[in-house]
Design brief:
heterodimer, A: 104 residues, mainly alpha, Cytochrome Bc1 Complex, Chain D, domain 2, 5 helices, 55% helix, B: 391 residues, Methylamine Dehydrogenase, Chain H, four-stranded antiparallel sheet, 32 strands
């Protein structure tokens, strides 16, 4: 029984595997977020010409919805699509981090 | 007694270097270290760092202006922090957290007033340059329901006058603070969608705001007794879909070279060139390798140096003004954010954020002269800005 539990824990569930990019890529994504998304949203994500991306500002947004905005942008506004360098999995991971709050 | 003397001697020894080094400030400047809330004080004669000053808050989009004696820098932080920095003592002379979110500022021609453009709360606040005591508050209310706009593109116009643009409100305002207690505001509504930045020409005559939401810029001739905003470069995109923009372009008075102004095209890999003498008609569009962020003329107007938006931001290009052609392309490092010329243009200092360095070039030979270590450097500002309108 215990062996089974360990096995289950070791087996990466499909959702978990999909939602966590490798450590090195996570570092790159967080850097991109602060430095480049930050040129409009502020390096602390408290907002600039673009809106704040802090958890309280995103509380009514879903992870899927945010990921879609990251990848596709918002036509008619300055928000550009980042799909050329951020995958769906990475965008969902970023969206989750944004909703949780990212320590400085 | 001996101990006291010794202590006194030690104290003198510590004070001596600062006191003994009498020096001017004409070759000084600052390099903003955007991620660590610090600035480097640098000198351009021997190209060295004199000191680092820390504790200036969020400097992620920081810019600076200089007092007329070129001793004090006024640094505008993203978090609303306004810092008066003594370049000679390398210490903070005054500091105030004047708003929640701000974008930049300007100083009046007499050096008395420092005005800051704020996103939150949207508007302009004006301070006494001596001690940063508040002087005036100009909320950027643009709608009947009291909505306030983020303010961008603040420029000094000579006298105690400033111009700025309302990003959300689509307006340009002129503020005359001849009587600082009662600012006289002139409003120009309906100038166009989403003015994102502005410049004033070095003679203080033309205020030009770029529009993000439309293909064109808005021009105000401030020498006219009754200035009226009008469009220039209207429809420069010729109806073609612009590319997505990964960093907003900046407009600066440096973009004037002789009679020409070099303006970044929003969402296009082009510099737009207009001729002041021919009613700002388009003279040329110069293809470049990415979306331009800054187009900055060397002070003599012979060259224009251009940097670019993410992801093509490791490259700098040099445009030769007489031929209107790109004559050099090179990579000083990763994520090039800003370029600043020495007063006569013999050197250009370039910040490479992701390489943690500033690279100095000889603008004649295009040879590298120095590399200076800096933490995530962004804006570079030299004291000669004190002598120019719009800086």
């Amino acid at each position: 029984m215990r062996e089974l539990l360990v096995l289950l824990l070791l087996l990466p569930g499909p959702a978990v595997a999909e939602e966590a990019p490798p450590a090195e890529r996570r570092t790159e994504l967080l850097y991109l977020l602060r430095q480049d998304c930050g040129s409009c949203h502020g390096m602390t994500l408290a907002g600039g010409l673009g809106p704040a991306l802090l958890p309280e500002a995103l509380s009514d947004r879903t992870v899927e919805g945010l990921a879609e905005v990251i990848r596709a942008g918002i036509p008619g506004t300055p928000m550009p699509p980042w799909g050329f360098e951020i995958t769906g999995e990475e965008a969902r991971w970023l969206a989750r981090k944004l909703k949780e709050g990212i320590p400085p | 007694m001996k101990a006291v003397l010794l202590a006194g001697g030690l104290l003198l020894a510590f004070l001596a270097p600062a006191a003994a080094q009498i020096r001017g400030t004409g070759d000084l400047g600052i390099v903003v270290e955007r991620a660590s809330g610090s600035v480097l004080i640098v000198e351009t004669t021997n190209r060295t760092v004199l000191s680092r000053v820390e504790g200036l808050g969020d400097l992620s989009h920081a810019s600076a202006v200089f007092g007329r004696d070129q001793r004090y820098a006024y640094i505008f932080g993203r978090d609303g922090g306004l810092t008066k920095l003594d370049l000679l003592r390398a210490e903070v002379a005054a500091r105030t957290l004047q708003a929640g979110n701000s974008i930049g500022g300007a100083i009046s021609a007499d050096g008395a007033l420092v005005a800051v453009a704020n996103y939150e709360p949207g508007g302009v606040r004006v301070f006494d340059s001596r001690d940063l005591a508040p002087v005036a508050d100009i909320p950027a209310i643009y709608a009947d329901d009291g909505a306030r706009s983020k303010v961008v593109g603040i420029e000094d116009l000579g006298g105690r006058r400033f111009a700025f643009s309302l990003y959300d409100g689509g307006q340009i305002w002129l503020a005359d603070l001849a009587d600082p207690e009662r600012p006289a505001i002139t409003r120009f509504p309906d100038i166009g969608r989403l003015p994102y930045d502005a410049l004033v020409t070095p003679d203080g005559r033309y205020y030009i705001a770029g529009l993000f939401g439309e293909d064109g810029l808005v021009l105000l001739d401030l020498w006219r007794p009754d200035p009226r905003p009008r469009r220039i470069l209207e429809g420069y995109g010729r109806g073609e879909q612009p590319l997505p923009v990964y960093k907003m372009p900046h407009l600066e008075g440096w973009s004037q070279a002789g009679d020409y102004l070099f303006l970044p095209a929003v969402g296009r890999h082009e510099l737009l060139v207009v001729d002041r003498r021919r009613d700002f008609a388009e003279v040329a569009r110069i293809p470049v390798q990415g979306q331009p962020v800054f187009a900055i003329a060397r002070p003599d107007g012979r060259q224009v140096w251009v940097n670019f938006a993410h992801p093509l931001n490791d490259t700098v290009q040099v445009v030769d003004v007489p031929s209107l052609e790109v004559v050099a392309t090179f990579s000083p490092g990763k994520a090039i954010l800003h370029m600043e010329f020495t007063p006569r243009g013999d050197q250009v200092w370039i910040s490479a954020r992701d390489s943690d360095r500033v690279v100095v070039y000889d603008t004649g030979t295009l040879e590298e002269l120095a590399r200076i270590e800096a933490r995530k450097p962004s804006g570079i500002f030299f004291t000669a800005r004190a002598n120019r309108i719009g800086f």
